[in-house]
Structures are given as C-alpha cells and as structure tokens.
Amino acid sequence: MTTIDIGSTGFMLLSASLVMLMTPALAFFYGGMATKRNILGIMIQSFASLGWTTVLWFFFGYSLCFSGGAGGFLGNLDKACLHGVSLNSVFSGNGKIPELVFIAYQMMFAIITPALITGAFVNRVTFKSYAIFLTLWQVFVYYPFVHMIWGGGFLAQWGVLDFAGGIVVHAIAGFAALASVFYVGARVDKNSTPNSIPLVAIGSGMLWFGWYGFNAGSELQVDNITALAFLNTDVAASFATAAWVAVEWIREGRPKLLGLLTGSIAGLAAITPCAGFVPLWSAPIIGTVAAVLCYFAVQLKNKMKWDDALDVWGVHGVGGVLGSILLGVFATKAVNPAVVTEGLAFGQTSFFFKETITVIGASVYAFLFTYIMLALINRVVRVRVTEAEEKIGLDMAQHGEKAYDDAQSPSQMG
Asked: Which of 13, 240, 241, 362 has the greatest number of beta carbons closer than 10 A?
C-alpha cells in the first residue's frame, strides 16, 4: 500500500468541504437578490446541482474529465461508475492523497459551476428545462474544458494554465449566462429589487470563506504555494472590495453594501486562475483592476438593457476573463515551477497570448453552445415560463411553495 500524506489528505478533505459549502452559499447570495416571489425558485436550482451533478459525476463525469484522452478534448469511460478506483488508489498527480479525495474535491467544482449561471435568468426559466440544461451543459461545455486544462488534454499540453478555474469555471459560466439572457429575454418586471440584502451578505461571506478551499485547495497538497494561494485570494478580494466601494461612492454619491459584496466576488473571481502562480505583490493589482472593470461591465450591461438579473456576466464572466489574461501577465516560475513560460511582466509574450486566446475562445464557445442548446431544449420542453407564471412568481407557479409565511395570525385579523 502506498503511504499517503496525512496532512495533505486532511487539508484536501477540508477544502472539498469548503467548496461544497459554496453552493448553498450561492443559493443564499442569489436568493437574497431575487424578488420575494422567486427566492425558492432560484435557490432550488443551486441545490439541484448539488444532488444531480454528483450523480452525473459518479456515472461518467469524473471519467470523462480525468481518465485517458491525453492531448485530446475529452477523456474516456474507463472510470465510469468509478470503476477501478479502490480504497488504496492514489491520486497520480502528486502521489500524496487518495484518488477518492481528488474525486470528491473536483466534484464540488462541477457542482457550483453551472449553478453560477442561474443568477442570470432568475424567475424566467422552467425547472424542467433547467434540469435538462444542467445535464447537457456539463457534458458538452464543462467536462471538455476540465479535461483539456486540468486532465492532461489539448490545452494543458499547449501550455495553458488555470490554477483554480478562471477559464474552467468563471469565464465559461459567465458567458453562458450572457447567452441565456439573450435567448430567454428580459423579465416582465424589470424593476425588481433584492428581497434581503442581509441574506446576500450571509451568502457572500460564506462564498469568501469557501473560496479559500477553492483556491488554496487547488494546489492539491500542503506546501508554500498553498499558503500563497490562500493569501493572494484574501488580498485580491479585499482590494477589490475597497476599489468597488470607492468607484461606486464617487460615481453614485454613497457607499452601498450590495456594491461592496459584489466587489468582493469580482476580486475572488479574478484571482482564481492566478492564485498559485503569481507573486503576492500582484494580488492588489489584480483585485483593484477586477473591481473597476467589473463595475463598468455591469454599467455597460445596464446601458445595453441586457437583463442579467444578478450580474453573472459582469462579475464572473468578466472577472474570469480578466484574471486569466492577468495570469498571462504576472505568472512566474519563481513562484511556481509549473510555470514553464513566464508572463508579460517578466519579459516573455507567448504565455500571455496563449492565455488570452484560450479564455476568449472558451468564452465564445460557451456562449454559442449555450444559446444553441437552449434553442434545442425549447423544441422539447418550454424554456421560459409564461407571463402569468412570472407575475405570480416561480416559487408558487413552479414549486407550490413560499419562502415566507406572510399570512396574518387570527389575533391580527381581529
């Protein structure tokens, strides 16, 4: 039996748990930003991914991402139903943790990525069509990019890096969200306001907390790069938070809690691809630039009247693209020996162009495939709810439930 590293194994189990926590956190974050009639409709989409994605991952998801297919676009089915994975199987990437732990950790990424998209089309999509979307999008968008970048596929062999998911998670989810907005169309009631900013704050705090497992855990062991990724994550998020508040205060005359929370997520999304590849001094730059560009991306969305209800494209899409490009600027082998060709800031250009071309290509593919896929789903199952259902709210129209009991008690009724 191969001896595993107990410390790294324990840390990775904790990291997997933290990333799992991010999906309920996302449900709180989105649920607080939804209108009162659509809280459960958006929250169930996150929790549905928590369950159904695990089923897909067990049957064939893990195998398609991480089994075979060296230099290709997708893996094979050799490990379908986790065939060949035993109690003693060790993750081949570093020989320090059980493969079971790696399977669990990567599964948590697969769960949250499609859930990110749901904030864009809140209170407009039928649950039946979402269930089909959740399945097909993972198979044809998420799994291929996981394999190509993290599973030894084509992009990995070309030299593309992505520490924790700037391309694999945020860019493709953000641009898929934009495509879904274009296909589904605008809400009937465009003046909807968040039902609970305190709930958004709870979700945001849990996301930030979980992001330490998301980024630091992506080193897949405990070492000095793990510590750097952890601190880079916090520093970038903090600078982004301050920068967003400053820009919003200057332009709109007052600081807003919702803006502060949104800024933190923008910084977290942007540092994700960079966390273990860039020096600490670059984290403030990445966080600040992310906040400013994501803020103006949201303003552009508003000006263009794209009804991305919860700013998935402006925060996750733009943040993921920006972070991946900035990785091409700041990556250095002095931080991580996995960096073969250094970034633009260190005098080399090829890696910068590889990262830029890849993230743009991935975003375009995710956008186009998502739009076409929704059109095809609509031929089988109605994607958009009716206007009457939208006015009632998806909580009652689709699920027959209400988030809050607002009935009066007998004493109040007199």
From this structure: 240
182 within 8 A of 121, measured Cβ to Cβ? no
As its CATH architecture, domain 6-391 has: Orthogonal Bundle (1.10)
Lowest mean pLDDT among 51-55, 173-177, 400-404: 400-404
Give, to the nearest 10 degrees, the angle between helix 224-252 and helix 197-215: 150
Neighbours of 32 (CB within 10 A): 24
Contact of 215 with 276, CB cutoff 8 Å: yes
Phi, psi of 384 (to 5 degrees): -90, 140
Q: Which DSSP letter does residue 98 get?
A: B
Neighbour tally for 386: CB within 10 Å: 11
What is the distance between the alpha carbons of residues 18 and 45, in angstroms, rounded to a whole number?
A: 19
> For residue 111, how many other CB atoms are within 10 A of its CB?
26
Q: Distance (Å, rounded) from C-alpha 152 to C-alpha 270?
A: 23
Classified as helix, coil or strand, 310 is: coil
Residue 407: the pLDDT is 58
The pTM assigned to this predicted structure is: 0.96
The type of residue at 336 is: N
d(CA 164, CA 320): 11
* Residue 410, C-beta contacts closer than 8 angstroms, at least 6 positions apart: none
Cα gap 259→241, rounded to integer Å: 8
- Kindly give the residue spans of alpha helices, DSSP state H, lying in 151-305: 154-158, 172-184, 197-215, 224-252, 257-271, 283-304
The torsion angles phi and psi of 125, rounded to 5 degrees, stand at -120, 135
